[in-house]
Automatic annotation (TrEMBL):
It comes from the Eukaryota. Its main location: cytoplasm. The lineage of its organism: Eukaryota, Sar, Alveolata, Ciliophora, Intramacronucleata. It is found in: Cytoplasm, Cytoskeleton, Microtubule organizing center, Centrosome. One of its GO terms (cellular component) is centrosome. Keywords: Coiled coil, Cytoplasm, Cytoskeleton. This is Leucine Rich Repeat family protein.
Length: 585
């Protein structure tokens, strides 16, 4: 739906579909649109993610009247064969083709070689940022040996050896110079045709046949002298015209050399920007590596903390198990001791109880005997009161002495039993105190372990905060790199437009002042954009130095170098602007 709206909004003769995501179905729709609308002669498909099959469909639908095809930043690859077939067809007159960054490999250049040998209309071909290599460069050089019409070919950033790249540039320069010489020779021939006029012969009539031969010879001599004088005059004029044309050709050569110097300067600026981009990418790679190392260290530290936490948990569980085992063992030992004490003292208590029962029986018997004796004494009292009292007192003393010793022994045994019970209670109390002390120590150890775990969690949290801050810095660097890439792409577009405009100006024959003014405007725009990019880099370095408190010597050196370069460029730009204003004003 979005693609249909974009196609409906296009107006001839330019078809611009940049940054559209075109799959095979989208390419089929674009091909049908081009087949139905043949008035589009300038086609731009920049950054549309077009693959080889989709590009073949589009090439089959391009109109023979098309002049430019811009398909940079795609993934055409082997689909370039369809474009080569189209360019080998004499009915197609494409003049400019841009296939920058399209995954074109060395094997695909064999097809480009065949196309260059047969094509007569193509004047500009851009194959920058592909995968051509040494083998592909040899194919291109072979094709250029059979081509005299291609005036611009960009094969930079393709891993081509310097020798082959120099030969390709020399071959393109030969095509340019031969084209210029052809134009100049064409102008000279036209001027000569205008100067030289054929000599009109005098037809023979009846009147002339009557003139004597001497008069005829005299007239012929005069005519020959006039013709010689006219030829000498024309030769002098031609010599002057040749000198004037030579001067104009020298001026044009100097102007072309100056323009080529300006273009080489722009290329050098662009290469500097590419170098700076590679430096930024290296810094980004270093920051990413540091971030990965921090992530690994954080993961390793987190794993150590988790292992320590697991070990401490295991230690706590071992302590709890040991405590429970000791507690159960103490309880079991206490139970065994109490059972042993009960087992040891129960027979004694039973013996004492039996003796006590026997003594109570003996006491009951004694009381019964005493009652009987009392009855007997009561019977005998009337007669023998004094004897009875004496006998009773003696008997009571003897009985009391006899049984008091046994009662004291029983009381001693009872006291010993109570003391043994008290010792057992004291031991049980001491065991309970030990258990309570162990529980207190266990609680304190558990609290200490929990505090250590909390501290480790805080450390992990701080580490995560640091990692998040570094990730924010990394995202900022990525955004800056994206902005720089966008500016570099704009510079490349402006350079391509400058080359295209220069070629068009050469074809149209624009006067020198307009060419110089337009070239100066382009140079000023490129210089201004370059200064803006360097100023952004300076601000970025200042921000990095403020974050690191000026401790990085490398950043400070780069900052001072960029400041010096920008200051010199600004002064040169002011002087150059004043000079150009004086020349053009």
């Amino acid at each position: 739906m979005k693609l249909q709206k974009a196609l409906e909004s296009q107006k001839a003769p330019n078809l611009i579909l940049s940054d559209q995501i075109l799959n095979e179905e989208g390419c089929q729709i674009v091909a049908q649109f081009l087949a139905q609308n043949t008035q589009f002669i300038n086609i731009e498909l920049r950054g549309c993610n077009i693959n080889g099959r989709g590009f073949e469909r589009i090439c089959r639908s391009i109109s023979p009247d098309a002049r430019t095809l811009i398909a940079e930043w795609n993934a055409i690859g082997g689909g370039i064969s369809a474009l080569c077939d189209l360019l080998m067809n004499p009915s197609y007159q494409l003049q400019l083709v841009d296939l920058k960054n399209n995954r074109i490999q060395a094997d695909h250049c064999a097809r480009i070689c065949q196309m260059l040998k047969q094509n007569t209309s193509l004047q500009s071909l851009n194959l920058k940022w592909n995968e051509i290599g040494e083998k592909g460069a040899q194919y291109l050089l072979e094709g250029l040996n059979g081509n005299r019409n291609l005036k611009f070919l960009d094969v930079s950033c393709n891993k081509i050896p310097e020798g082959l790249a120099t030969q390709i540039r020399e071959r393109i320069e030969q095509n340019r110079s031969s084209d210029l010489m052809a134009k100049n020779s064409t102008g000279i021939k036209e001027s000569q045709r205008n100067v030289y006029q054929p000599v009109k012969t005098i037809p023979k009539t009846a009147a002339t046949t009557n003139i004597p031969d001497r008069a005829i010879k005299k007239n012929d001599a005069i005519r020959v002298a006039q013709l010689k004088e006219q030829i000498d005059q024309e030769l002098r004029q031609n010599r002057l015209m040749n000198e004037e044309l030579t001067n104009r050709m020298n001026a044009l050569r100097q102007e072309i050399l100056s323009k080529e110097q300006a273009v080489s300067m722009a290329k050098r600026h662009f290469e500097e920007e590419v170098t700076r981009k590679s430096i930024i990418e290296a810094e980004y790679t270093q920051v990413k590596r540091q971030f990965d190392e921090l992530g690994k260290a954080s993961d390793y530290r987190q794993q150590e903390v988790m292992n320590e936490y697991v070990a401490k948990n295991k230690h706590v569980l071992a302590l709890e198990n040991e405590y429970m085992h000791e507690l159960s063992q103490i309880r079991h030992d206490n139970k065994l001791q109490i059972d042993q004490i009960n087992a040891n003292w129960q027979p004694r208590l039973d013996g004492i109880q039996s003796k006590f029962n026997s003594l109570m029986k003996a006491n009951d018997q004694y009381n019964q005997q005493l009652l009987r004796m009392k009855e007997f004494f009561l019977k005998m009292r009337l007669d023998h009161d004094e004897n009875v009292k004496a006998v009773e007192g003696r008997l009571l003393i003897e009985e009391k002495a006899k049984y008091n010793h046994q009662i004291e022994l029983l009381k001693k045994r009872e006291m010993e039993t109570q003391q043994t019970l008290k010792r057992a209670e004291n031991e049980s109390q001491s065991i309970q105190d030990d258990m309570q002390r162990l529980e207190t120590n266990l609680t304190r150890d558990r609290q200490l372990i929990e505090e250590q775990i909390q501290q480790e969690r805080e450390k992990v949290h701080q580490t995560h905060l640091q990692i998040s801050k570094r990730s924010i810095k990394q995202e900022k660097l990525i955004n800056n790199n994206i902005v720089l890439d966008h500016h570099i792409d704009n510079l490349i577009k402006k350079i391509d437009e400058t080359f295209f405009i220069l070629n068009i100006q050469k074809d149209r024959g624009m006067d020198d002042i307009q060419q110089r003014r337009l070239l100066q405007e382009r140079q000023y725009a490129l210089h201004k954009t370059n200064l803006q990019l360097q100023h952004q880099r300076i601000l970025e370095l200042e921000r990095l130095m403020s974050n690191q408190e000026g401790n990085n010597i490398k950043l400070r050196a780069e900052y001072e170098k960029l400041c010096h370069i920008v200051q010199g460029k600004v002064q040169n730009a002011v002087i150059e602007t004043c000079r150009l204003n004086l020349q053009l004003g």
